[in-house]
Amino acid sequence: MLTSIKMLKNIIQFDYTPEELGDKLSMMGLEVEGITRVRHRFNGIITGKVEAIHHIANTNLNKAIINMGNENVQIITAASNLKIGDVIPVALPHSKVASGADIVKKDFKGIMSSGMLCSCSELGLDPEILSSEEKEGILIFPADTPIGEKVEDILPIDDDYLELSLLPDRADAFYLRGVARWIEIVKAKEEDRRADFSQLEEAISFKIEGVTDIPIIIEDKELCSFYSGRFIKDVTVTTSSLSLRQKLFMLRMRPVNNIVDVTNFVLGFYGQPLHVFDADIIKEKIYIRPSKKGEKIQTLDEIERNLSNANLIIADESGPIAVAGVIGGFKTAVTSKTKNVLLESAYFSPRCVARSARSLGIVTDASTIFERGADPLFPSKASIIAANLISKEAYGIPAKDNAVSYITPKNPVNLRIARVEKILGEKVERKNLRKYFSFEGFDFVEKKEHFIVTAPSFRADIKEEIDLIEEIVRMKGYNEFGEALIVGELKDAKRTEYENFIWDLKERLVKLGLDEIQTVSLLGESSFDLVGYTDKKKVIKLLNPLSTDMAFMRPLLLPTMLSVLERNKKSENVNVSIFEVGKVFCKEKLFKETDELGILLSGARTSKNYLGVHFPYSLLYLKGLFEELFLYYDVPVTFEAEKFSFMHPYQSAGIYHKGEKIGYLGTISTTVLNKLGLTDEVFYGTINIEKLVKYYGVEINFKPFSLYPSVKRDIAIIVDEDTIEKDVRNAILSAVPRELQKITLFDIYKGSPLPKEKKNLAYSLEFSSVNKTLKGEEINKFIEILEKTLRKKVKGKLRKE
Amino acid sequence: MEDKIKQIKEEFKEKIKNKSLKELKELETYFLGRKGKVSVLFQLFKTVPKERRKHFGAKINELKNFIEKNISAEIKRVESIEASRKLEDEKIDVTLPGIKLHTGGLHILSQTISHAEDIFLSMGFDVMVGPEIEEDYYNFEALNIPEFHPARAMQDTFYLSKKILLRTQTSPIQVRIMEKYKPPIRIIAMGRCYRKDAPDSSHFPVFHQIEGLVIDKKVTFANLKGTLSLFAKRMFGEAVKVRFTPSYFPFVEPGAETSISCVICGGKGCSVCKNTGWLEMGGSGMVHPNVLKNVGIDPEIYQGFAFGWGIERIAMVKHKIPDIRMFYQNDLRFLKQFRG
Ligand SMILES: [Zn+2]
Q: pTM value?
């Protein structure tokens, strides 16, 4: 929110620079995010009055005669919103408009124009705070604006604004007088005195006539504890006075008409949301009641809204006429035809307004204030202020208001002096407590061991003891308190076992040459299309996504990992070996999150180099990584050929642990790669790491190894081409005894001189015994048994050299 | 005979010049071999009169020794020359770049988390975790943020159902821990959080937080300041100062925004700290009595503090990373800069 320093200075005196003020308020808890400096950028533009308008035949131009006070000038303009008597900004020759352009005398086909008439854009005004009428045509000042004045003196353009952040617990930062109170507290603290907010009040005396006789019925005093209605008759709805519009300008509010402008001003300046109804449209009685199901209201923004019992409404006999504390109804809104109005000034409970505004999905200035707690004692005064202004601006005659009040005095809060030290870790002297409460304008009664404190009615945030302790810290200064380290029993601090496992796993993967990535756990429909993911029933959808490409919780790591690959390939990072340890989500009975590991490889382990040494990644390299991991945690797994929608049908496998599938790996299909515009092969594997955790941290026991020389024997086995290697290996393992220490497949061969549909697998076998040197005959015996087993189990033949 | 000896010696002197190793070996055979020039002299020796034999014998032996000595010296010399020439042929330009084998690394967020965990572990904090899909109760209600509280509207929340959401902060872990364990409690928790923030250089719908919670009988505001101050010094360097500014978080009171002195300009003011000299790191404060009551801890007996800082924010400040989106883009040119 922007708060005008010029306007603040009108009601409270201070000599701080905007920056100093910003710092002081921030250190007090009202965060100032910055200072906006606004300066007029035009030069020499002055006010003039339209004396005559002549249309120039066969053009869309008018010739206007403008009275500049000391002379009349003739100006050609295309504007269509001018009428005789309008006071307008005039840029005479030698002046400069906001864009920086110099104004010169111009010749329109023989007719001289001595300057130009200005719209808001020539003045460089912020279109945000202008009415739509003002945005389009020439800016027209109220009729009472003096002629020959500098425009920068009429429009309070030159100003510095504090950019205040919105506090969730305090409404008094949202309106100008509230900010002035913060400044008063800053001053009181600096001057070591009690804050005096009375200087910010003004005495008002005005004439009233008659009474407001419409009955007002509050159904639930918890939701609305005060409601005042006041008739104001014979109003003239028109443009506001220059002085009110100047004030609205400084409050960064858009002028609408004099009635609405008054209510906006009272809100922006005094912090009291008001509403004005066209009194002649209201039927008989005013009810403040929760809405009933099926009721509807067309609100001021002309949108028809369905109401529910979440909405407190103002209703008459015909139904809802306003949503209490949120927005008014269109039907009873003030228009240019309105003659008599009913002015509402009320206190609605914060929760009630918040719930109502949330249910309608709207936020208004009124709801922002009510939600944070308006001043429950102010509505009565606000009604007088507004009525007085309306009587001046719209010439209306106010009646005495009809107010229904259930306001109860605010309960004082007890502060135990001992409690202050207990919470803050530092004694605060009694005399300082007295001071701090005075700085804030709190009333208090001092007892032996406690203070009884009453905060002003606008301090809705002071409810309990801890709130007062915070006030003490704010007044003393957050940084005036000392620092101390925690005192307590020494205990062993640790990560959870699961977290230790995650770190261990990540470190292991890094040692295997992989880079960790972290991707967004949200993805879009297109990701499912990309990988042909069809199990959508289980996918969790956000009720209120930020965008369509982040509408679902990821059920697998692959899509976001692929986009990381895509990005890197585009940045010419050709060798990519990445992993992510992250959560995937699915909907079973409840929402479920599971930790998974994904590994993705593309390119080679080495960069292109002058030696021609190249180590391209492959499916079996990826498998090797997983095997290394399973070996590291000593997890028994098997890999079984299996097909997946996004994998090469003959280059993919499921990973099984004790019969349960815990993951899969494979070569990403070219269909997927083509969609991403990738040409290099990509390998991907994933496992549910929660299945591994029980293997983590198992103590490793020493196993004896042979101190005798080992015997190596190479064998070659001829089998059918489609025999899988796993079967051959298992056959070997089943045939030879535990003296077989190591088995290495070192060659696979097909082709001549082997018969067609045969292949040769060459293994190196290493035998050793813990207690003796193995003899040649013993090995020969093993090989004999092996030969028989191979013949039986895989129809294999040992090849004799 | 004498002439013959002289002649051979001269011949040898002549021939030994500028010979390769192979030629020297041949020369050795040529002179000293079984049929070599010196052997032939020994045969001629028989024809020499007996009284002269002793004289000539000595002469021939002298010649033989001369040749032997010289040739072996020459062989040694040439050998060493050839050996060094061979080494020279094997010369490698040591300025050639080494062959790079790709090595892996931890993501900078993991590195930052690990670093932060280690600091707090050394201060006696346990490290805990909690779910990313959270119940409204834990994320808001139990944290003194009832339904319709204005603080909720300011934290744009992703909902999965009416009462289930993606946690907007790590603070729900506080509640889960306090429900499960009795005080004294001294924990930190790290994790992913989600907010409906449109991505820009400092916002991203996914981010990480580090949450701290200490509950005991005598844990004070001074302890909060001391703990965060020590953490900041260990994370960013001894010179770093911590500043507390009043701020509102419904689950702590007194509540504070915690900033560190700008590590870029040292507090003098620069574009990163927007000329304030301070960088905001996150919220902190004394646990609100309502939060303690919600988990069945008596606020008259126990009290404590909590804080929540952004991990990305810590990493961005520590490593001067300009844009939060870089963490999630995972460009290897980014990741590889942080050798983890
Ligand atoms: Zn700086």
A: 0.86
